[in-house]
Amino acid sequence: MAQASRAERRQTSWWHQNQQQLTPWLFLAPGILFFLFYVIFPIFQSFNLSLYEWDGLGEAEFVGLYNYEELYWDDAFYTSLKNNVIWLALYLFAIPAGLFIALFLNQTVVGIRLYKSLFFFPFVISQVVVGLVFTWFYDPTFGLLNAILGSVGIPPVNVLGDENWVTIGIIVAGLWPQTAYCMILYLTGLNAVDPEQIEAGRLDGAKGWRMLWYIIIPQLRPATFIAFVVTIIGALRSFDLISIMTNGGPFGASRVLSFYMFEVALSEYGFRMGYGAAIAVVLFLIMLAFIAYFLWSMYKEEKAR
Amino acid sequence: MRSMLKTSAAAIAILAASISGATADSLSGDLKIFLDTSNPAPRATMEKAIADFQALHPDLNVETTVIDREAYKTQIRNFLTANAPDVATWYAANRMRPYVEAGLFEDVSDLWAEPEIAEGLASTKGAMTIDGKQWGVPYTYYQWGVYYRKDIFDELGLSEPKTWEEEKANCQKIIDAGKKCYTIGTKFLWTAGGWFDYLNMRTNGFDFHMDLLTGNASWQSDEVRQTFANWRELIDMGAFIDNHQTYSWQEALPFMVQGDAAAYLMGNFAVAPLRDAGLTDDQLDFYQFPAINPDVEMAEDAPTDTFHIPANAQNKEAAREFLRYVVSPDVQTWMNNGENLGQLPVNANSSVDNDKFLVEGFEMLSTNSPGGVAQFFDRDAPAEMAKIAMEGLQEFMVKPDNLDRILQRLDRARERIYDN
Question: Which chain positions lie within coiled-coil regions (chain A) (predicted)?
Fold first, then answer.
């Protein structure tokens, strides 16, 4: 009897001994496989493709770093890069705006749920609709913006037709839903704020800005972190609004890297897969810098605990 | 009427089939057709044409897929390589070159050798030819020109201009009356390409224009500068509507409908929306773009839409039969009449609808375009060059002072693009 059970144990022992370590990997396996195949592999594929000149149809021709050299001389690339930076900087305005709307809505009045959902509404509707609404708003001849400006005596402006204003005009349109998104993140964050700490702060004489800065905001740190991440990512993939509102124009002034990549590689007039891949690589490196920063700061925080 | 059409179509099909040595009824299997005619009227026309073709060949199983016209332009690359239909729509001239060079379109020179097609379609043969072979058949084309508000012209005592001087004098009077001479929407760039086509063909002639678009002439040449100087005369007068860079061509229509602008340089497809917006044929008229340089012959833009057989098609025999059917005179006549496509038939033996714009356009193209017939800026130039150039044209229309920088940029692009 004892012998039999020992034999049984020997038979199953490897699985039994390693079960604890193996099970998570087994569960992770499908995810890892898909991630490798659909995310990691295409990254290397893009790197590789950026060394070729290829129209997507015929034979690909190896050209080394020629596509990157082209990028270096390409004015349109610098315009796109500059616009990406403007997007990154100005889009972050959604975070404080979202915070203040959340603080404003974080009260108990009759019908507050309705107000909250109305403020959240722009995030629910499609970016395409947001783009269209703002295009009509900015319309130089029939738009509401110029009607308002005209009523206070300011001459009409063509926001989407002026190469200096167009990017800012689109970012303002993008801020509308993005602010709503940050607001909802902060509203949930505010639910988790510890009332005892507020009480303690109040006893110590903190109120107004000092209360907000030293007591509330530190406790909203997780919400701020998420809001920061989604806003940065949102700024870097600001493709749909540009496509709807200006199609990259006027004369390419509102392009960002992702839109430029689409234009040269995949649009109606685009047949330069290698060049598009080179732009994608640059965009990837920018994103990588941000992601690395996030991972590093998260790691530091975990270690500090 | 319909049955008559069917019988005549059947007769043609049998005639064509007897030449190719098979009987029409022997067609069988599947015929997959991909169309980009997604607008309601063209879609209905195409579906009817295909239904008639199906009725002629009951054993054939015809499957039609209609794809959005804009989406089609990017999808074609995928489906030609991966999942090719038997027949696909596309455009003539340089626009089909990438697919011809990649070996994705079937050589249909054999169809063009058949007498009906050789004679009937002779006028479009050049636009379908690359490397001495034909790669598809046209099914419709349309004229470009100036569509104008006749009532405004009458009110101001203007007549259709024949020369550049008359044109500018007219325009000055229109501006003095507080209106704009031309509406245009350059958000999607190609409308500016139409203006450049005409200004350059009128200033330097058809041959130079083609040299420029095929990379054999410089954008910084004196000829091109003269074209832009002519254009600038209009821009400096304030001939075009303000803020055109924000509008699509459709969004520019209301300016003309409301009478804020007197004319529109456009393709014939602009007539339908203008009529829908309430302009009657008494208010709306057409004239050929006036001569600028009296020493060059008049040449016109007349973009041609086409059918092709992908090289990877499964049922090429049936596909060829369909191409024969589409270009036959009777099918061409009804397909392009005012109730259907409302454009010009490509077959010389078919008749043009009694619509005043079609009649005028057909006459212009057949008798008053000795210099040649161009396809369109973005169909004659390679796609990449067209994109960069049209962006430059838009910039020029908004900021004419940037011309030198624009032309330098275009020349640099030219050296890169035509090099390979």
Answer: none
